[in-house]
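Researcher: Structure prediction, please.
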Amino acid sequence: MPEYKSIRTKGVLEERRLNSGRFRVLGFKRQGQFVYDPEEIKKEFLPNGFVFAPGIFNNPKFTEDTIWEFYAIPGDNIIAGGDIMFLDSSRDYTKLDFQVFDIYEDVMVTAKQFNQPLLNRYFNEVTSKFYIHQKETLYGPFKTVSGEVVPELGRHVNLFGRLPRIHEINGRQYLLELPSENNIIEKIECYTRSQLADWFRREVRASGLKIDWNEWEHLLGTWNDNGEGLGRFNQVGNFMEELRLSHQEIKTLADSSATLKNMYKQSINDIRELIRQEELIPLLREKEVLEKEILSLNTRIATLQEESETLNKQRKKLTEEYQFINEEKDRLINDIKIHTTVAEKTNTSSVYDLRQDERLQTFEVRVFEKTGDVYPDLKSFAKKCEALFGEDVNVRKQGMLSFFQLRQYKAILCKQVDWVIQFARLTNNCKLFIQQVEADWLKYECLYRNGLRQCWESAVKNPEIIHFFLLEDINLSSIECYGRPFLDLLANRRQKLPGLDESWPPNVWLFGAPLELDKQENFGLPLIRSSFKYWGAIPSFDQINTTVDVSGSYLPLNVLYDHGIDAPIQMNDYFHHE
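Model: Predicted structure follows.
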């Protein structure tokens, strides 16, 4: 078991639950180095390699599927089976949004120069710092400014010799660690067209030549630089026609003399009206037609979206109804099989045909009377009972938390019958009714006359004594048949049970122990999750120590209610057949 402390952690935020979330741990710092091994992560962040982040989505900075570096600490009030480590919201945290893009097209002019206009086709909408991965080589960092891909600083990016650790989320790749400066092999040039144009003008001015554009090839032929300068000249040559026909360039040239300026103004006046008649007006008319078509298409799209949403809702409803009918069909078939077998193997006269005083009572009552002083609170009682759950510290913590469910839930699922019996025994203040469900229980009367009525009436007469009604093999028959009235009572659809004057007494709890289907093949019915919506659930323990010594204290009823601990439950262990 690791010794928990504040741990520097990297993780991806996922599994939103209301305003809380969970980080899947990608790495953690140990002895000055980050560890990324999944097995080591699971050992350090029990039980499944996650960190719980209560209320994290109250901060708008946090969104799902983002990577963060933060501190994790052992949590308080850990739920049964929940995450041991919690986000330390008092410490700093950093978003790791260094995205990496793979490029397969050749985007280099030379080995030391990027074709920057070609990069703009890929990354003009990226808003944060990013890196480029090509042929096992990493370049960066880059950023975008007004739709232009440029180095983060200056006019050069780094070429790195080793690819750092990368994590992928929904098809996007992110660096978990920034490349080290010690890993830089060399600097790679990344000039924009405007920067190339500025450089070119400086070179022309410095050469003292009066350039005739038709003599461009002659200029390249006289250039003696075989390094970066020649590469830049080649890039300038690639967009020379664009440079020649640029309106700004023409205007700048016109400003150099009065004669050219007059020619420029007269040319503009001559062609302005011609352009408006031949180009602008037809374009405006075409634009108006296109806008009407777009409006019509948008209206049609909105109508189709509404129809699609309606059809999806109908399909979902029909699917749920179909699944429900199939489940009910299977349950009915199983019920018929079970009751047919019972009818064949029993006498024609039922035990319920006997007079009431001749019926066999199949429940047992065990009484654990008060002794000694009272436990001051439920935590003291739970601490006394921790030896029930073995030596494992985490299992003991889950077991102690299970006692706190009784404040919220009046009916609780429990796989181990011994847990209920030992709980009752250790209170020294409990009356325990033990009854098994029979295969031929089809009516509520079967439950009512086999311990439920007696437990209810005893609880009303003895309001200070805790009463447990333990119902074994609850799925040997359909609980939706024999137990429907008290299922309705739990759901507040009824105010009291048939045959009983009192509503649910505050000193009564019902524990249901299902028959494990995988241990008894073709025997017992699967539980329906919706029927147990208002039930608690005790975790499954490998063993229950039945030899724990009973102290000289007893547990009063009010202690089960007087605490502020909510113990969330996990029902999935009881519905693994779904």
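Model: The two ends are 33 Å apart (CA to CA).
Researcher: Thanks, that helps.
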